[in-house]
Amino acid sequence: LLAKLVEEGLTLVFCPITHDSKGQLLNTNADTIAAALAISFSERYEVQLNYCFEKKGVMKNVEDAGSLIPVMTESEYRRLLQEGAISQGMIPKLDNSFAAIVKGVSRVVIGDSGSLSEIIQAKEHCGTILTA
After folding, report:
1. pTM value surpassing 0.70
2. 36-56: per-residue pLDDT in tens?
3. Under CATH, which architecture does the 2-131 domain have?
């Protein structure tokens, strides 16, 4: 059904609100939902997954705007995670990103929303490009 809607030219918008078996609303991690959708669509289309937030991309030091990591491998992520340089909300974002790459998503970029058009156009200098 979703593929048919996309093929009709519609833009799909998803909300990360889900519910448990008792109907209790849950705020599900939006990064996880985005990755699951990207993985699903990658079975049929070439998919680029873009995560946007307030920083220019993944930073070695979140306090230093000049510490952008332009390209990150999963092994570099694991090393920075052990060093404590990656924390909080960036962890599920990166975990989901690398899982999406392994499961067929062609490109994952993390950057700021102000650079989204450049990220979509695959300009190399925007955000952090994740590679296997």
Report:
1. yes
2. 999 999 999 999 999 999 999
3. 3-Layer(aba) Sandwich (3.40)
